[in-house]
Amino acid sequence: MIELYHVQKEFRGRRVLWDVTFQMSRGEFVFLTGPSGAGKTTLLKLLFRAERPTDGQILVNGMNVGAMSPGRIPELRRTMGIVFQDYKLLPTRTIFENVAFVLKFLGVPTQERKRRAYQTLRMVELHHRLSAFPEELSGGEQQRVALARALINEPELLIADEPTGNLDRRLAEEVMKLFTAINVRGTTILLATHDQDLIRGSGRRCLTLDRGRMLEGLVESSVPPQAPHRDPGTPPPGGDAP
Amino acid sequence: MSGQRTSALVALLDEAAQGLWRARRMTVVSVLQIAVSVFLVGVFFLTAENLRGVVDTVKDESAVTVFLKPGAAEEEKAEVERLARESRLVARWRRVSTEEAGARFATSWKSLSRASSSLASSPFPETIELDLLPDAIQSEALRGFLPLLATRKGVDDVQFDVDWIRRLRGAVALIAVWGGAVGLFLAVGAVFTIANVVRLTILLHRDEIEILRLVGAPEYLIRGPFLIGGLAQGFLGGSLAVGVLYLSFRAVLRYVATTHNVLVGVFVVRFLTPSTCVLLMVGGLLAGVIGGAIAVRKKHLQG
Ligand SMILES: Nc1ncnc2c1ncn2[C@@H]1O[C@H](COP(=O)(O)OP(=O)(O)OP(=O)(O)O)[C@@H](O)[C@H]1O
Ligand SMILES: [Mg+2]
After folding, report:
1. What is the atom index within ligand 1 of the atom nearest the CA of A194?
2. Would you state the pLDDT for residue B33?
3. Could you write out the DSSP letters of every residue in A1-28?
4. Do B7 and A108 touch (CB under 8 A)?
5. Measured over all CA atoms, what is the biggest interatomic distance in chain B, rounded to whole angstroms?
6. Hey, are the CB atoms on B215 and A102 less than 8 Å from each other?
7. How far is Cα B81 from Cα B83, in angstroms, rounded to an integer?
8. Best of A41, A86, A211 to mutate for ligand 1, by most ligand atoms within 8 A of CB?
9. Between B56 and B222, the higher pLDDT residue
10. What pLDDT is recorded for position B261?
């Protein structure tokens, strides 16, 4: 599904990715982690051609992403769902429109769009805020709208950049359950996060970037699913709940 | 496939409508701007078309009136008729007696007829009217023909103001040229207005356009709404202009009719023909499309 060979990326002569090589097969659910500024977002951007590699080759779903003509980029992106680190919601449109918009250019009829947008927003527990605008939502709510938008067209590949960064522990776990369910249905997932708890509990393959270099195959499956460690800032699950 | 295409078109139109609505204040401004331009061009068209109408009326009725001296002899009248018969300029002629002239005046100038009937003797001399052939006015021969008539015995005066028609025709041509020039100028202005409004909208929604691209929106859904928006603004502006032009035309006509009764009777004043109206609306529409296309072509919309 995703293949990278000796990928380099420089921004105005400053190298941020060094000789990155890895493969992901269809149906896999892989974490991408590493300290802030390691190059996670940059790596993901290369996959949907928001950036072009300085060197190396990138294949996504059989398409040579680095070399493809600009005219084919929309086609590439429509096969994926992308959750952006900064959400990228349309400020002048309601939550509902933000989510349903993606279906508009896939030729889905209005009624079907409404139904699916509602369903998807219910999955992220935002079905009661359909007519709100993004700026009226909290950071975590916006993040969930971004997630709903990425999921609505049931993409073959889901690329998520810190999709739980603004969520509390309970919601983060709900979202992870959602990802797992989607993955079971066949969607390939690449999820960038520096939340070690999420990774530890999952027993999934994890790629680690460190200052632009890929530390290959750090699979943390040996860690028991119920990790005792918690962020000091977040309350234990169900602590505040009635 | 066709269902898919239909819904893509619906999506496109929907996006365009939403875009116009979101930027409604700017939409109104550019619609008005186009409307003003088209309106002014319309005023020129209207003036030129009506003046041309006047020229045509005059040309249709281009008759030379030969005023006879009171008590002119029959042979003298026959001489004028002989000249008319032999001239290649004249289609037909007829004698108009004093009584006939008086009656004719009475029917076309009702309000004045009472005054004329009270006069002791009819003020209208006997005349011979020569209807000229359509091309006669342009003919050089007319210049020689008129003095020839005027110098016949028994002829008092020959009336045919060629200069007046020439001058009017010159004025019509001038108005048409000026109308064209001003119209072109205004059209260019309208195009740039729309281009700027669309460009401004694009700049304002730059982030949004970037997001649309990131989620895989096809190019036609990104550029299309701006083009359609320009088209719609242009068409609305053009239609508004034609509508307002018609209403002001009616208002002016009603005002003139109540104050200057006589004028309206003499000149048949018409509004623009339907095809000219359509032309004006299409002109507005084209200005909109071209403006939109210019803006959409700009670098900041390139992927
Ligand atoms: N457009 C850009 N121009 C110049 N430098 C950039 C650009 N984008 C990213 N960088 C640099 O590339 C490096 C990697 O950035 P990136 O956003 O990929 O990190 P990250 O791993 O996603 O970090 P975080 O966990 O904080 O999101 C950083 O040093 C950043 O300054
Ligand atoms: Mg990042």
Report:
1. 25
2. 84
3. -EEEEEEEEEETTEEEEEEEEEEE-TT-
4. yes
5. 99
6. yes
7. 5
8. A41
9. B222
10. 57
Among protein residues, the one with the nearest Cα to ligand 1's atom 18 is A39
CB-CB contact of B219 with B213 (8 Å): no
Domains of chain B, first to last = 2-57+166-301 (no CATH), 63-159 (3.30.70.3040)
Q: Is the pLDDT reported for residue A91 higher than 50? A: yes
Tokens representing B89?
A: 């300029």
Beta partners for residue A64, in sequence order: A59
Q: Please, which residues have CB within 8 angstroms of residue B37's CB and are 6 or more apart in sequence?
A: B186, B187, B189, B190, B237, B241, B284, B287
Q: What is the DSSP string of B90-153?
A: EEEEEEE-HHHHHHHHHHH-HHHHHHHHTSSS-SPPPEEEEEEPGGGGG-THHHHHHHHHHTST
Position B242 pLDDT exceeds 90: yes
Tens of pLDDT along B141-163?
887 888 888 888 888 888 776 66
- Mean pLDDT, chain A, integer: 86
Grouping H, G, I as helix, E, B as strand and the rest as coil, residue A63 is: strand
pLDDT at B266: 52
pLDDT reading at A224 higher than 80: no
Integer-rounded Cα radius of gyration of chain A: 18
Number of Cα atoms under 13 Å in the Cβ half of residue A168? 11
**One-letter amino acid for residue A37 of the chain:** G
Residue A158 has a pLDDT of 95
